[in-house]
Structure formats: C-alpha cells, structure tokens
Amino acid sequence: MSKTIAQKIIASHLVSGDMTPGGQVALRIDQTLTQDATGTMAYLEFETMGIPRVRTELSVAYVDHNTLQCGFENADDHRYLQTVAAKYGVRFSRPGNGICHQVHLERFGIPGKTLIGSDSHTPTSGGLGMLAFGAGGLDVAVAMGGGAYYITMPKMYKVNLTGTLQPGVTAKDISLEILRILSVKGGVGAIIEWGGPGVRELTVPQRATITNMGAELGATTSIFPSDEQTRKFLEAQGRGDAYIPLESDPDAVYDLEITIDLSALKPMIACPHSPDNVVAVETLSSVKVDQVCVGSCTNSSLQDMLKVAAMLKGKAIAPGVSLSVSPGSRQVLSMLADCGALADILDSGARLLECACGPCIGMGFSPNSQGVSLRTFNRNFLGRSGTRDGQVYLVSPETAVASALTGYISDPRAFVSPVEYEVPAVFKVDDSGVLMPLPEGNDGEVLRGPNIKEFPKSKPFADSLRAELVLKVGDNITTDHIMPAGAKILPYRSNIPYLSNFCFEVCDPAFPARAKKAGDGIVVGGSNYGQGSSREHAALVPMYLGVRCVIAKSFARIHVANLINAGILPLTFQNSEDYDWVSQGSRLSMDNIRASMEQGTLTIRDEETGKTFVAVCDLTQRQRAILLAGGLLNYTKDGGQ
Length: 641
Hints:
The protein is of the alpha/beta class.
C-alpha cells in the first residue's frame, strides 16, 4: 500500500495500534529533547519512575528559556538539569549554546527518526524529514524510560508548493499564508506534509521555519521530504552520514490537498493577537512601529541572520525604533562574528541579545505600553510579550528589518533587489557547549535548590463528582492564558505551589483563591481550549488547585493529553449550545463515571436548576485507565504501559 512520508516513519516505529485515522498508535521514540522551562518537571517525573538510565538513542536537555538570572531560582534549575542529565545519560546543552530547536536541527536531527520534546515547536525538526512531536513533560519522561508515545493516528494533509519565491518574500510568508488559509484550528488531527516542485529550492532552515509554525495550525506535526537540500545541510554540519532519502509514494493518498503558488505570494503579517489574523504587509503601511525583534526558534538561522545583516549594512534604524537581534545558536553567532556580518548588525544600532528564546516568551525586551512590536516569532498571544497591552505582529526577518529602518510597517520588496549574501558550504562546528553524561554505572549527585519542589500528587477518580464550576472561559484559550510565562513567573516552573498563584491570571486573577476554596472544581471552555505551548504546567497547576474536570467545545491535541496525564477528565459538549447556559459558580454533578467512560457519554446535572446536558467522553482504554489511576505517573508506577 502506498504511503506518505509520515506513514512510512510511523509504520517503521509502530509498537502497537491501528494506523487508520482516529485509532490509537504507540510509537517507538528514538530521540527526546527538553528545555529548562518544562525540563525540570520532566526530570523530576523521570526520577520518580526509578529508571537508572535513559533508554533512547539520544536525549538532550537544553537551557534556552529561563536564562535571565535575577535571583537564584533559574541558576538552581540549570544546576539541577546539568547534574540530573549527567547521572541519567542525557546530553546537556549549556546556557548560551542556543535555542533547543535550532541546535537540534544543526547537531542532532536525523531524517526518518522519531523525536518528541517538551516544547510545542519540536516539529521544527520536520524540516529535516524527522517525525517530531511536541508533548507534555510526562510523555517525554516515559519515552526517556523506554516507553512508547501514544497518539491518535492523524489524517494526512499535503501542501503543494508551485512557482518560486520572489525577492522579499520568504518561508515565513508561506507559514503565514497557510495560517490565513487554515486558521489556528485548521491542522488539528492532521500531519501536514509539504511537497510539490516549489519545495526543491527551499533550504532546510527555510523548511524548519515552516514546520516550526505548523504548531500554530494545531497540527500533530509537519514534515518535508529528505532530499538533496537535506543532504547539503547535513554535510555542511559535518553529519553527512546521517542522511537518508525519504519521500512519499507517488500515489500516496491525502485527506486534504492545498496548493500555494509561491510566485504570487506577497509578504504577509499576523496582526494582534493571533497567528492566523493574517493580512498582506502592504495594507498596513501607515502603522508606526516602536519595537522590532529578530530571532526565536522560527527565524534565527545563519541564513536568516545573514539576510538581516545584508539589509542593515551601512544603514541606521529609525530613531523611534528599538531593534533586538537574537541568533539561534552559538554556531550562528560565532559565524556571524567571523564573517563581519555581526558588525553590520551592531553598527545599525541594533541590540544583540543572548542565543536564547528571550522576548518570544516574555523573558525580557518587552515593548512599551501599547507599543507596536514586530517580531519574527511564532506567537503573538495577548500579554505573551510581557506587556499586557502590547500590540504584537508576526513577520519575516525581511519585513522586520525594512520596518525597523523606516519606523513604519514596510513591505520589504521596496528594499530588496535582491539582498546579496552567501551561506557557507561548511559550517563552524564546536560542540563544546554540549556536555556529555557520566559513563554508565557512575552514581552522580543530583543537586536541588530550595525552589525545586516535589511533583504534585493527583488522586484517582471516584465514581461520582460534585464540584463547583470555578471558571468559564471562551474560545481559543491558550496555555499562556492558563499558565502564563514571562520573566516574573517562569523561574517558578519547578515550584507548583507558588506557580499556582498565577493560574488563569490573564482571564481572572481571583481564580486561584476561588479554586482552592472550592476543593474539587470544574472549568468550562470554548473551542480549541489549550492551544499553544506544550507546557504541562497548564494541566499540573489546575490539578494542584483541585480542578478535576474540564468541559470544552473542543481541545488542542497536546493539552488534552496533558490533562489526562495529570488526572483531569476532559469532556466535550455533545451539543455546543449547552455551553451557553452553564454558568460560573454553579454546582455540577456527575454519577456512574466509570461506566460512562466506557459508554463514551456522561450526563452532567446542574444541582441548582436541575437542568442536565450530555458530554462526550472520547477516551481510549489506556486513557481511561490513566484517569482512574489518577494520572500517568500513578499509572506507570502501577505497571501500566
């Protein structure tokens, strides 16, 4: 039977399950990655499992999120991660070595392999032909222990690219165009394969920009063929032996096909406050710009930075604009310095930031109040920048630089004719920023600081639940709404009790106190609940606060898995109109939970009005067992697979 690229990799890694869309499949995982904002909790979970050594082919712990050290908390987490990685067989990428997705692409990604990471943008490595998934920390911990990764078998979508990108139009514009077409919900339940004749000219960094932004579509992952471009990239990194050719069969069948003519594509821009709020750049030429940020895991490759340097060379940024540049890795920064491009960037008046996530997660360089900030990042959710009323737009590096030079949102085609730059055939390789673990059998000491607290304990599900509806929210609630990031909060990712004080702060600052007072609680949400980051804290913290159940119109893939892993029951309204009449503060009850889980529907009663509605309980047998055990950690410790 003919197969897509993803189906070929799934078939070669299938541990169990049915590859029919909608069935559950368990996959063998070759590689894992973690980053420090989610990694501390993932390794606490791994330690709890009592497994002496990771069992993957490769696992890497990166420090790239919490690099702003305003107190001891982040430094203590870094020390913990370094020592726990050394003990359990994990490589450790030191602070300053670069953003996990950029470094993994450069140094570790292998076509045809599977990768899961505790970061939603792990699909970046799909630009190399990897099958790479974002996942919750618990799922990553289980995979490090040799366990399978369970997903619902996705549908297969294909985007066919025709034509050629015109000067000033970029891979980022392709990403924004597909978001305009499909929306942030359009990829849910699907793997997106990119193909067509237009793919041949896209370099691996360009492809990685597209697969990175695929997370904003809600897609399970995105993937490109492994071809001549892949071989050239791997050879430039001194890793040519990792190359294998990989493409879909000519007669592979897709559930949806979309064609984008690259020749007709214009520079695009995502307006506040959603990545799919996309229009052409040329329509916003009257908008004054306060801040511009170039970097993040989406657009921080050497190719991107060389284009930025070429556009800035001999020019100065507009007086009213603050421009930051964040190279994605130490390799990129070092090569920029060696060739003189870094001087061209700095001479323009730009500010150089660390090779880290930085402003993308609100870790410094927040815009002024009501400031317009153009960013080459992947998300522009309300408040994510660290400024509650910041107006954040998503753009390509070319649009970013053109706008920084004029002080207004500017179409880069007026500045590009075309920009001349040359990407070296051989990259500078220095892996000294990645520390190897101790040899097997060495019992290294794991160092924990006072901010690192125990993993919170969940409780098994009883057969009935009576609980207050402690919060009702609308559509497209992100994990940034549920558990905000930013410089003030991120240092407490390993301290769930303290972190809980900020849960749903964006929606309702009174939520934590109300949830604690209620004891058991229920949250109601609209469509696409939990979109965005893979952060399992958006499930662990509500669980710590007593939330037992979330009822929504629909869920984002990673978040619903995290809820189940945390022992929180996810339900969907059978009739979406029932969402309208349930109200915050009501007491809801449900009985015969175990039998209802088996049947697939559950009747919920408002104890004050007597009204009832039906919720769908769409769970696999394994997911039901996890919930009844009180979460994945309990389930795994009890011998579950």
